[in-house]
Design goal:
The structure holds three protein chains of three kinds.
Chain A (H helix, E strand, L loop, with lengths): L2 E2 H15 L3 E5 L15 H4 L4 E3 L4 H13 L3 E5 L10 H15 L6 E6 L14 H5 L5 E3 L4 H13 L4 E6 H6 L1 E2 L13 E4 L4 E5 L2 H14 L5 E5 L2 E3 L3 H11 L2 E4 L7 H13 L9 E3 L10 H7 L3 H12 L2
Parallel strand pairs in A: 2-3, 2-4, 4-5, 5-7, 6-7, 10-11, 10-13, 13-14
Antiparallel strand pairs in A: 1-8, 6-12, 9-11
Chain B lengths: L15 H28 L14 H10 L5 E3 L5 H7 L3 H9 L31 H16 L6 E6 L6 H12 L4 E7 L2 E2 L2 E2 L11 H6 L2 E6 L3 H16 L5 E6 L17 H4 L7 H11 L5 H23 L25
Parallel strand pairs in B: 1-2, 2-3, 3-7, 6-7
Antiparallel strand pairs in B: 4-5
Helix pairs in contact in B: 1-2, 1-3, 1-10, 1-11, 2-3, 2-8, 4-11, 5-6
Chain C lengths: L2 E5 L9 E7 L6 E2 L4 E6 L4 E5 L4 E6 L6 E3 L3 E6 L2 H6 L46 H10 L20 H11 L9 H13 L4 E9 L1 H8 L7 H15 L6 E3 L2 E3 L6 E3 L1 E3 L2 E3 L2 E2 L7 H16 L13 E4 L19 E5 L3 E7 L4 E15 L5 H15 L6
Classes of the chains: A alpha/beta, B alpha/beta, C alpha+beta.
Chain lengths: 321, 342, 394
Amino acid sequence: MSITYLEAIREAQARALNDDPRVFIYGQDVGAFGGAFKATKNLAARFPGRVLDAPISEDAMAGLAVGAAIEGMRPIIEMQFADFSTVAFNQIINQAATLFWRTNVPCPITVRLPCGGTSGGGPFHSQMMEAIYAHYPGLVVMTPATVEDAYSMLLEAVAIDDPVIFCEHKLLYNHLKAEKLPTEALPVGKARIAREGRDLTIVAYSAMVQEALIVADELATEGWEIEVVDLRSVKPLDTDTVMASVARTGRLLCVGEAFPWGGVTAEVIARVACEGFGLLDVPPQRLNAKDTPVPYHPNLWAAHRPTAPRIAAAARKLLRL
Amino acid sequence: MVHSPLKPEPVGDVSPMQELYLRAYRLMLLARVLDDKFASLYRAGKIHGGVFLGRGQEALSVACGLALREGDVFAPLIRDQAGRLAFGEPILDAVRTYLGSALGPMRGRDGNVHRGHPKQGLLAMISHLGAMISVVNGALLARRMKGIAGTVGLACCGDGATSTGAFHEALNQAAVEKLPLVMVVANNQFAYSTPTARQFACDSLLDRAAGYGFHGSEVDGTDLSACLTTLTAAADRARAGRGPQLVVARLLRLCGHGEHDDAHYVDAKLKHLPASRDCLKASEDFLRAQEWADAPTLAAWRAEVVQKVEETLAKVHREPAPDPFKENWYALSARHLCEGYE
Amino acid sequence: MPQIPIIMPQLGESIAEATIVNFLVKPGDAITADQDIIEVETNKANMNIASPSTGVIKALTAKLQESYPVGAVLGQIEVTEAEAARLGLDPAQPDDGPVPADAAPNGDQRRVRPTVRGLPVPAHAAGASFMSPRMKARMHELGLHAADLAGIAGSGAAGRVTIQDFEKYINNLNQQKLTEASSMRVAVADAMRRSWTRPLATVGLPVGLDPLLAHRKAQNPKPGPALYALRALAIALAENSAPAGRLVGSQIVHPSAIDLGFAVEADDGVLVPVIRNADQKTLSQLTTRYAELVELARQRKLPGDATGGSIATVTNYGTFSLTFATPIPLPEQTLVLGLGAGRKVPHWDEAKQQFIPVMEANLTLSFDHRVLDGGAAGRLLLRITDLMTHPEQL
């Protein structure tokens, strides 16, 4: 039996609904239809009254989640696409993210963001939103890169007493498969060494981890041992694991699918440069999407985001320095 | 919330309406005296940040608070000192929050009108207009899911907030879910300096009720009796499962947007319209006309609330300010997930 | 007739594959463009695949109830030449396949693109001239200096020493016999390394020693030749102290007193005791003071006022039987005067028209070329030899 990243997300939600009566799902088309990506397929039937279709009102969806959380519920909000969460941005960053700090009342909501590009997605169905949410205090931002993490981290997101932005990558939904669901997991906030190496550290998250692993395989045939660090959550960011990896390799390449200005890759490199300057044997490098909206056409899209060939080229430059 | 900040009524044999009116009047009076005090403290440089008064809106606001019961959800906005008191918020909360006491509900982390006790149903507003309404919806939906019946939620806003997307989304949402929401719009003629003519183009905001699928009612916001009757009826309808309610009140904001604003843009002619009268003065006139209170009684009530306010201020003035070195600077309840930037 | 493939379309965001549920046409059927031909099921919905063109179904290669990835060929449609042309399948059309992901956009061709953009390792950085933050941190940790890396050949860009080269070198060292250098050795090494950062030059000429050796016989205590040199240097610098100035940035630092040092070999290094105001002391006084300081230096008991702050140093490498050397001035000094070993050499006597034996030694002046040039250094050296050959002036 194999299970996809999307199925893992569905199973995690089913388990959360099953195990905790405080959990409910609210989002556009999540009910009988099962969600635009089928992440909630059959859940409305299995859990009557707890998987609710929302009007096309992202702001009110997030606001409702906050109100329900105050009352002790643990809502999961599905944004149909991460891109649309901008409509709910105010409720997420000003209402949900400030509630605990202002009032001492926790805000256990999970906002699921189907993010990242797929072929033909275009400017408004392909964006990576983790950086802007990570910028705000009061939010946890998860970016699972594996089927196992999609499952275990979503369960953890629901269990955490704070708002969690759960960035699930659409490209991995049906393409990424695992043998079975995990029975144990790293704690949230802990990065994972996805592959060990001694010549170069590639720090990545979400779908970029998969690209980085392809690159590591390819460079292994050239005699290089690449260490791949999967951040798992970008906030909190596991600086210790990154630093320990750079201490082993002396070389750092940070890869993100988001736009280049600021963001997770800049944050990782800033931290390593500030706290681990003496670990670097070459200038740290970052690789991001291009500084334009995400293009529609597959040719343009493939060149817009970092992919294995681009990452490999950047890695080779660093390795030969 | 529970209360009450005032001594029990001295009068014995009165009708329920008279009793409600007297209670409402004394809460309005307390709100007005407290607001005026905040205005003076602001002008004396004793308050950090803004001061926002409910002058002219006390009748509507107090009726909102009195229409609610313990266990209901209340989302007041910036001009709801009277409603907060009526819902049971202690005067101490207001004074501590305005003066930045470390012992206040917001502990110096947020100020003035942004206070609340969400777990007791008193939501702590954010500044973005319309944003609290869907939060009330969420609380009401949660109660339905938990099988709690008979509670309602009441959200306040002004005419300005009705122009936001959040207001629209939340009202539509409440109607779709048939939630017991009472949406109270104080049409006080100005959003900061913008008159209603630049805010909306329908004849009456009440027209929107039909569009959303709300039951709508309109009330003279300067008439305490009418406000008490209308708000109680609206809350009762919501409580009885008859769906969301929209109450639109007409009145005039008798102050600036905040105490930094002199409201010079308010036309003098508008100020002298009957609909622009001071609700507190009008209810005093009503009390005396009904012979529910004479001048010495009114004076005694005023003296009582003045003393109450002064006592509270004296207490809070002696309280510590928040200490940045003792502040924990954690934005998450899960402390192990906080990043310790130095 | 041309054929065009029936392709499994992308039937929704993130859909990877779809299953064939039903064929709505069979081989041989005439079909029109946009006609539904195959029914498929994704995990989102049931959908129909539409015909891309008008033509005849040539073959349906896909199988019922099988899943096919997006882009898979499910069958072939035979079309007319005209239909193929209409669909842009004209072979004359250039093939614009997918652009390689790392191809530079056209606009970039005019821009200067360094080969290692954003990685500021200088070209021709062979050896350890570029030191990464990590290399610097490791060197600090191990107490190493750039000079210690001279023996490492770099394998990095343009021959730079990478951290791996460095660690390999350190590991190799650890397999050899290692002892701790004395603190004196480390101090001298430090001084020499710092001094060597400057452009240093040396001038030299022979000086006749017979006059001073004759003069010496009548003295008590008897000064050695180096003391004559020290006294001559003191007088020469008192006349013109400019050559002993130091250059710091764009400013000259002028000497404030003629305090001169002299090199004394001690244990595993060199000490430089200082005689204050050497220009104001007689040869006799200098001789006495010199003897005291040499003794104190050997006992490692030099008083504070006899160390540091000198403006030039005299070194008598003649005591090691060396006739010529290019000493390095102390880092805080511009000049070092060196005296070689005396030896008898034939000297052409013009009056006697024959060679006569004379005692002679080389006198060298090493200096910071930033402060003075060969001419000024030569003039100073000539003045010193002049004084040494007229010892009655000392």
